C-alpha cells in the first residue's frame, strides 16, 4: 500500500477540477478590513459576507469567477486559481458615495428615498460648542424637534 502524505492530498485537491474551500480576505486601499463585503461565486451563485477581519470562505474550483462588492466601493471580479487564499483590495467609488443616504435603520440609495432628506454636518455642530449632541442638532434640521426638561434626572428626547 503506497504512503500518501498530507501535502500530496492538498496538492491533488487543488490541481483537480474539484471544488475546495477558498479563503477570501477583503481590504480597502488603506489595508483595513472591509466588514460585510459580499463575495459570490458566479457559476453557483453561492456566496458569503466578510467578518470583522474582512475574511470569509466560499466553495469554488479553479477557473470559477468570484465577484466581490460593497457599498461605496468598486466591484471586483477575479478568477480562482490554484491558491486557496485570495486577497482582494477594493477601491472607493466616490461617485457612488454621493448616491447613498444613511437612514436611522440602514442605508438606501437617494433615488429610493421617499420624503425629504436633511443634512446636519458634524463640522457645523462642533462650532456650536454645546455639551450635548442633541443640543447641537437643535435648529439645524427642519422637522426635528429637540425637547428639554428642566427637571433633574430626566433626559432630553428628539
From the alpha carbons, calculate the radius of gyration and give it in angstroms: 24 Å
Mean pLDDT: 76
Number of helices: 4
User: Percentage of helical residues?
Assistant: 10-25%
Overall strand count:
9
* Unreliable stretches covering 5 or more consecutive residues: 1-14
Largest sheet: 4 strands, antiparallel
Q: Which of globular, elongated, flat, extended, rod-shaped describes the shape?
A: elongated
**Lateral strand order in the biggest sheet:** 3-2-5-6
Query: What gap, in angstroms, lies between the N and C termini?
Result: 76 Å
Task: Give the H and E element order.
Answer: HEEEEEEEHEEHH
Structural class: alpha+beta
Strand fraction band? 25-35%
What kind of assembly state do the chains in view correspond to? single chain
What report would you give on this structure?
By secondary structure, this protein is of the alpha+beta class. 16% of the residues lie in helices and 28% in strands. It is built from 4 helices and 9 strands. The protein has helices at 6-15, 94-97, 122-128, 133-137, and strands spanning 20-27, 38-41, 46-49, 55-60, 65-69, 76-79, 85-89, 100-103, 106-109. Strands 3-2-5-6 form a 4-stranded antiparallel β-sheet, with no helix packed on it. The protein starts with 5 loop residues before the first helix and ends in a 21-residue tail after the last helix. Residues 1-14 have low confidence and may be disordered.
Amino acid at each position: 500500500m503506497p504512503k500518501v502524505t498530507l501535502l500530496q492530498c492538498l496538492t491533488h485537491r487543488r490541481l483537480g477540477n474539484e471544488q475546495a474551500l477558498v479563503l477570501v480576505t477583503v481590504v480597502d486601499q488603506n489595508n483595513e478590513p472591509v466588514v460585510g463585503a459580499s463575495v459570490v461565486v458566479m457559476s453557483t451563485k453561492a456566496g458569503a459576507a466578510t467578518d470583522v477581519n474582512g475574511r470569509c470562505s466560499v466553495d469554488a474550483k479553479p477557473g470559477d469567477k468570484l465577484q466581490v462588492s460593497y457599498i461605496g466601493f468598486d466591484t471586483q471580479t477575479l478568477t480562482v486559481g490554484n491558491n486557496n487564499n485570495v486577497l482582494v483590495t477594493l477601491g472607493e467609488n466616490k461617485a457612488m458615495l454621493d448616491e447613498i443616504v444613511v437612514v436611522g435603520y440602514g442605508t438606501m440609495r437617494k433615488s429610493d428615498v421617499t420624503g425629504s432628506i436633511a443634512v446636519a454636518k458634524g463640522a457645523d455642530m462642533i462650532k456650536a460648542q454645546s455639551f450635548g449632541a442633541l443640543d447641537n442638532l437643535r435648529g439645524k434640521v427642519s422637522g426635528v424637534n429637540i425637547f428639554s426638561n428642566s427637571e433633574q434626572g430626566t433626559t432630553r428626547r428628539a
